[in-house]
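Sharing a chain and its predicted structure for anyone who wants a worked example. Both blocks are below, sequence first, tokens second.
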Amino acid sequence: MLELKQLTVAYGEARAIWDVSLQVARGELLCVVGPNGAGKTTLVNTVAGILKPMAGRISMDGHDVTGLPPHKFCEAGIAVVPEGRRLFSGMTVAENLDIGSFLPSAKARRRETLEEVLALFPALRAKLPAPAGELSGGQQQMVAIGRALMARPRLLLLDEPSLGLSPLVVGDVFNAIRKISASGITIVLVEQNVSMALCISHRACVLELGRIIAEGAPDDLMKQPEIRQAYLGKV
């Protein structure tokens, strides 16, 4: 479904992603893990069309989307939940969710999709008239994920969805991600909570200094002592 070929991304003269090639199958949940500064957010923003690569190619279903403007990435079926959520805090929860369904195809099914989002996150139903800025961090993350789902994406990009959340809320968010994956949506999950991410993923890759240094099934990666020690603190 998604294919990255020899992707290189730079900020000025500083390269953040080096010659990354990666494939994500339809319906797969791929997690990307790695230390701070590894290039994980850069990778997500490039796949979302927010950043342009200096070299390489991004394909969706065999179609080259590398040079398209960001809104065309959304039309191609890609939605992103950015790090830090980036909600419109002065707008209501309902208004934030509505923004996600601006494409004609999504707008036509807005009510249906809203009910699906509220079934996934029941706590948001009573909060629909409330300003998003008044919600707890966990509820705001639910709105951010819900907003992306309102676009009815085929590929969902999640950048650090557990950041700043309590352990209990993290569990709720990961359960929701598991359900989204089970519905058939392809997911690329960037996450520093490695143990939780690996538990729900079909496949994982480790990004370090802008390069993929390991890739495979989560269980196989965890059998590698250097990976266990570096990312789980276990020998």
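Comments welcome. The chain has one domain: 2-232.
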